[in-house]
Description:
153 residues; alpha/beta; Rossmann fold; 4 helices
Amino acid sequence: MMPQGQHTQTIVVGVDGSPTAAAALSWAVEEAARRGCPVRAVTAAPQDAPGYFVEGIAEQIDTVGRHRPGVALSHVYRTGAPGKVLVADAADAAMLVVGSHGVGRIVSVLLGSVTAYCVRFAGCPVVVVPNTMAVRETATAPMAEPALPGPLL
C-alpha cells in the first residue's frame, strides 16, 4: 500500500465516446508519452448500456492507441455514476484527465456535471481538456496534432 498523498505515474482519463472525450484521451496519451507512463482509460455507464456504446468507445481507444504504440494504454469499464467512478479510479493516479463536456444531458455553463464533480472531489490534479480541442469530424478520428497546450490545470 502506498503512503497517503503519493501517486502512481498512471494517467487516468475519462472516456464516453464523445468528441471531447476523444480529445481528452489524445491529450492523456501524448502526456503519457512525454512522461513515459501508462494511461488507464475509464468508462463509467449504467450496467444496461447498449453494446454499440461500449464497442464505439473501444474503437476510439484503439484508434488513439495506434498512434502512440509505445504508450501502455488500458481500458476499464465500470458501472456507476461517472464522476464518482472517475474520482475513485484516479485515487492513486498522477492525474485525472477529463473533457469539458461529455454526452450527458445536464451541462453547466462552463463544465459538464461529471467534469465539475471531478474537479471538486478528485484527490489528484485534474486536467480539463476544453471543448475547442475536441475532434470535430467523428469521435473516433485521431487528432492530427497533439492537443497541446491548452487544458486547464
